[in-house]
Amino acid sequence: MKFLLALFTLISFSTFAQDAKSQAILDKLSKKMKDQSSFYIEFSVNIKNSATGTDQNETGKGWVEGDKFYGSFGDNTMISNGTKTWIVIKEEKTVYVTDADDEDDEMINPKKLMSLWESGFKNKYGKETTIGSEAVDLIYLYPKSPGSVDYHTIKLYVSKSSGELRKVVLRMKDGTDMTYKLTKFTTNPTIDSSKFVYDSRKYPGYTEIDG
After folding, report:
1. What is the DSSP letter of 206?
2. SS3 of 144, please?
3. 102: exposed, middle or buried (Cβ count in 10 Å: 0-12, 13-18, 19+)
4. Residue 81 belongs to what domain range?
C-alpha cells in the first residue's frame, strides 16, 4: 500500500511539474505578445488528411493592433475593427459579417493564432525537440469543452532561445492535421488605420450576410 501511495504521489508530482513548466513557457509567450502594441506575421498552412487524400498548402499574412486585425489566407480576407469582423470569401463572392465577440471558436485569425492558448485549454509539457536546427519546446493544449469543437489537441512549438511561437498544429477529430508555420514575425510595425476598415467598394458584386 505504501509503495502504491508513493508511486501515485510521484506520478502526480511529475504531471504537475510538466504542467507548471508548460504554463511558465506560455506565460512568457503571452507577456511577449502583450508587450507589443502591434505585430505583423507571415505563415504557411498545410491541411492534410491521409484517409481522404487531402494535402493542401496555403500562405497567409496578418497585421494586428490591439483588438483589430487584418488577415489574408489564400484568396480570402478577414478584417476586424475590434467591434465587427468581415470574412471575405472570394470563391463564393460572399462577405460574412459578425460581432467581433461572436466569432467561430474554431476560426483562426492572426490575433487568435498568436494568443489561442490563453483561455479554454488545459496544457501539458511535451518535450524538447527541434524545427530545423532550432531547439523548441513542444506543448500540448486540450480543450476544456471538447464536445463543442472539432479538434481534440493543439500542439504548440515555442523557440527555446527567443520564446517566440514557431508552429501550431490543430489535430481534428476527423483525422485532419492543420499545420501553421510562422515564417516571419515583426514587432511593433506602424500600421495604417485604414487596414482595419472594411470597404464594400473593394468587393463589388459580393453578398453580405450578417451572422
Report:
1. P
2. coil
3. exposed
4. 2-210
pLDDT of 11-30, one tens digit each? Answer: 343 444 458 999 999 999 99
Cβ distance 21 to 126 under 8 Å? no
**Are 172 and 151 spatial neighbours (Cβ–Cβ below 8 Å)?**
yes
Please state, in angstroms and rounded to a whole number, the distance separating the CA atoms of residues 63 and 192: 10
- Phi/psi of residue 112, each to 5°? -70, -35
User: For the chain, how many structural domains are there in total?
Assistant: 1
Say if CB 69 and CB 63 are below 8 A apart.
yes
Closest by CA to 123, choosing from 106, 137, 105, 133, is: 137
Grid coordinates belonging to 44: 504557411
CATH number at residue 12: 2.50.20.10
Query: Cα separation of 11 and 7, whole Å?
Result: 6
Q: Give per-residue pLDDT as tens, 94-115.
A: 999 999 887 655 568 899 899 9
